[in-house]
Design brief:
nine-stranded mixed sheet, Carbohydrate binding protein with CBM9 domain, 24-stranded antiparallel β-barrel, hydrolase activity, hydrolyzing O-glycosyl compounds, signal, 833 residues, mainly beta, Immunoglobulin-like, 46 strands
């Protein structure tokens, strides 16, 4: 089997190279273009006044305890004079809320101290939270480092006043908290304010191997009680993006970082009880992170275990497209920002439900004994990093095993196996060349290779994101091609887009064009909800960045969309949307949506290629309100209304979510959603190659409760509960779809025993205790309770459906998982001792 993996990966390389060699010139061109841009920069570029701070090399290390008053810090220079980012951009810091910092380094790590003074220290917000929950009601300190000084990327390290830590990677204004590394941070509070100390090991950073490092950085502070934010280097929120405003960090020279090899061994036990059957499973494995060099890192998961990932938010799905869920597996979340280039990578494809599990071609007198719900992931690796020439490289490879269903012959007792998914190799490669101050050109390729007579696939995208020298305009272009290699031939499809956006000033226009060909299909390793379309888009936004009257800020956004079928050319619909949004000085947010759409020719509802469904014009209105989260009791609420003109179809949606903070340790959030839609013209079935339609009524109710009790910032008890019910009832006056999209009465009748109605009810409960007992090490004890029921009782009430749900077999699951972080350099010291 191992030799087959080697052959498979080699075959992938040959296959990949044969398909993209004609794109290599793009990377060569962009490298030359980057140099040209650097050499021709003029005074017309965005002018950023950049402060300079000189870091100090040290020979001893501080005690990271949140009290930066020891003699270690005395000779380190102070950085100060912060400037307000929000609400009044550009104001000097208050005398009552001064901020200072110090930075030191040695061959192992950076050391950062923050002094966050507050003349009303007893009212410093200090809600407890767990890792990465930096939006809790606590003050916030951030140290942002850019080891390439490219004004595009940052690695961000956060600490709250309640001693919770967070880390993220940022590109422009996009921030990704799925990034997780091991660093130390501690805080303390006294009558003068609060303080933070951080130790950031070089194993958490990537930087070029040069004697003198060219780094930049930013220090960020958020003061919850007075609703203000500050940065060390002035950040003009009306121009460009935040990463363009870093200060310069000098003095970091001749560092000799240690070997970057981190091991994450884990062990888990899962006991599952369902419908009288109990199983207990034990597993162990290891993830590792290895620094190939100072710029590139290898991540691998060996014997993967995803037994404690969160429940998917499953709903009743009667539409023409699959339901998409977010990624809950840490390996496919962490450090994957490069893989988002081009939008052709959807990690949930890896280990998905086998594509043949729903079509076993059962013969008479056969029954299913076993039919796995997912393909087992065997192993996965990813390599990511960026060279000193600003070329980012991301490579991901994952292999899932062959999956088989077992079918039993009920007459003679024999069994047969049906392959529902082949042994599959998934690959993603991205090359991202940055140029100028804040621009990049990328080549992305997604490849799926299956063993045997199954479909292979390859998707390639070229992405250009260019900001002009004044940071006043952004230009974007994407060109994509998909190939699916089937036993009968190759299906090739294309997608493209071009956009322009004004990125400075209060008035911000946008123009865009999006084309999707008939055969565009990236779904083997991507996800797609659009085909055969041309969309013309225009926006005109007015953004008030600074306080005016009772408002801290407000936005007035207008959207226009004109959508056509690409082949043959056909006007599908046009849409006008207006979105006002307001945020007051007292942190009350509210807004609305007003939308009107012309008659709509739906390409997908019929489930027949090139067969449209004609809908009348419509309007949609909604409004929301969100109160001040600083108060113990806060409320989020929204309501919406949809109606078609001269048609019976209409719908309502109501969402209510109160939250109550019992103390700085305990927060409870309840969410209630009520949705009702009546008389929607909907697909029922296909009869004699004709789409049969009917009016459909649906009703949904969802209740969710989430709460966390934080014993401290390392131990927490968390509750997550969700009950979702939905029913659908079809009118029995069936209609037959015509070629022009209209519908006429049909004599179609349901076969005996056939009922298209639906009743869907699901109950999930998670209760977990987590304990970060050492840096990077965690133990999680999880109890799960889940129930599911689906049938064709479309006239049932919520209470009746809930009663039926509680009669179904309940799955009870208890699991314990322990992960330990091991730095190879520390392990060497143990062995020497």
């Amino acid at each position: 089997m191992n030799s087959f993996f080697v052959v498979l990966r080699f075959a992938f390389c040959l296959n990949f190279m044969s398909k993209i060699h004609y794109f290599f010139f793009a990377i060569l061109f962009c490298s030359a273009f980057a140099k040209a841009q650097s050499s021709t920069a003029t005074s017309d570029s965005l002018v950023v006044k950049r402060k300079t701070y000189h870091a100090t090399r040290v020979t001893t290390t501080p005690v990271i305890d949140g009290n930066p008053f020891e003699s270690f810090w005395d000779p380190i220079p102070v950085g100060n004079n912060f400037i307000m980012t929000e609400p009044t951009n550009g104001l000097k810091e208050r005398d009552t809320h001064k901020t200072e910092f110090k930075i030191a380094y040695d061959d192992n790590a950076l050391y950062v101290a923050g002094f966050l003074y507050d003349n009303d220290a007893q009212n410093i917000a200090r809600q407890f939270s767990q890792r990465d929950d930096v939006n809790a009601q606590a003050d916030l300190f951030g140290f942002f480092i850019n080891t390439y000084n490219n004004q595009i990327n940052q690695t961000r390290f956060y600490a709250t006043s309640a001693n919770a830590l967070g880390d993220a990677i940022a590109e422009g204004d996009r921030e990704d908290f799925s990034y997780n590394v091991v660093f130390q941070s501690e805080t303390s509070i006294n009558e003068r304010g609060w303080y933070v100390e951080m130790k950031i090991p070089y194993r958490t950073l990537r930087f070029p191997e040069v004697d003198i490092q060219n780094w930049s950085f930013q220090i960020f502070r958020k003061i919850r009680s007075i609703n203000e934010e500050y940065t060390y280097n002035f950040l003009d929120i009306t121009k460009g993006v935040g990463t363009q405003y870093d200060a310069l960090l000098t003095g970091v020279e001749k560092i000799d970082p240690p070997l970057r090899l981190n091991l994450y061994p884990y062990a888990s036990i899962i006991h599952d009880n369902f419908d009288g059957n109990s199983t207990t499973e034990y597993s162990a494995g290891m993830d590792l992170k290895y620094g190939i060099n100072d710029a590139f890192t290898l991540d691998a998961t060996l014997i993967p275990d995803f037994g404690q990932v969160a429940f998917d938010q499953v709903r009743l799905n009667l539409g023409p497209f699959e339901q998409a869920f977010g990624e809950n597996r840490a390996f496919f979340n962490e450090g994957t920002d490069l893989f988002n280039k081009g939008g052709i990578f959807f990690s949930r494809r890896i280990g998905k439900r086998p594509s043949g599990s729903g079509n076993l071609n059962l013969q008479e007198d056969e029954s299913v004994v076993e039919n796995p719900s997912k393909a087992q992931l065997l192993n996965a690796i990813k390599i990511t990093g960026r060279t000193k020439g600003r070329l980012g490289v991301g490579f991901l490879n994952a292999i899932t095993e062959k999956t088989e269903a077992i079918v039993n012959n009920d007459l003679d007792g024999t069994t047969r196996k049906v392959v529902t998914e082949a042994l599959t190799n998934y690959n993603m490669l991205v090359l991202d060349q940055q140029f100028s101050a804040n621009s990049s050109i990328s080549l992305a390729n997604a490849s799926t290779i299956r063993n045997g007579s199954f479909t292979d696939a390859n998707v390639t995208a070229i992405v250009l994101n260019h900001n002009d020298k004044k940071a006043a305009n952004n230009y974007g272009t994407e060109l994509k091609m998909s190939n699916r290699f089937t036993p009968t031939g190759t299906d090739t499809g294309y997608q493209a887009q071009a956009t322009w956006e004004r990125t400075t000033g209060k008035w911000r226009p946008f123009l865009g064009y999006y084309y999707t060909g008939e055969n565009w299909d990236p779904n083997d390793l991507g996800i797609n909800f659009e085909t055969n379309s041309s969309i013309f888009a225009g926006n005109l936004d007015y953004v008030q960045f600074t306080p005016q009257g009772i408002f801290n800020r407000y936005e007035l956004r207008t959207r226009v969309r004109h959508r056509r079928q690409a082949s043959p050319d056909l006007h599908l619909n046009s849409q006008l949307t207006f979105n006002p949004f307001f945020f007051t000085r007292e942190r009350l947010a509210f807004g609305a949506t007003f939308d009107i759409t012309t008659r709509n020719l739906n390409q997908f509802e019929s489930r027949i290629p090139d067969q449209i469904v004609r809908y009348n014009s419509s309007y949609y209105t909604s409004g929301f309100i969100s109160t001040d989260y600083r108060k113990k009791l806060a409320l989020d609420m929204s309501i919406s209304r949809f109606k078609r003109f001269n048609d019976l179809e209409h719908s309502y949606d109501f969402d209510l979510s109160p939250r109550y903070r019992f103390s700085d340790k305990f927060l409870l959030i309840y969410n209630f959603n009520w949705d009702k839609s009546d008389n929607r013209l909907s697909y029922v079935t296909i009869d004699n190659d004709q789409a049969i339609m009917s009016r459909r009524n649906t009703h949904s109710v969802e209740n969710r409760i989430s709460g966390t009790y934080n014993f401290n910032n390392k131990q927490a008890l968390s509750l997550s509960f969700r009950n979702f019910w939905s029913k659908a009832r079809f009118n029995r006056d069936f209609l037959e779809l015509q070629s022009d999209g209209t519908s006429e009465e049909s004599d179609y009748a349901l076969d005996e025993g056939v009922n298209p109605d639906a009743n869907f009810n699901i109950w999930n409960l998670d209760l977990s205790y987590s304990w970060r007992f050492a840096p990077g090490s965690e133990a999680t004890l999880l109890y799960r309770n889940s129930i599911f029921n689906q049938n064709d009782q479309g006239t049932i009430s919520y209470q009746e459906s809930l009663d039926d749900l509680l009669k179904q077999p309940t799955r009870n699951n208890v699991s314990l998982r322990v992960t330990y972080f091991l730095d190879f350099n520390n392990a060497k010291k143990w062995f020497k001792a």
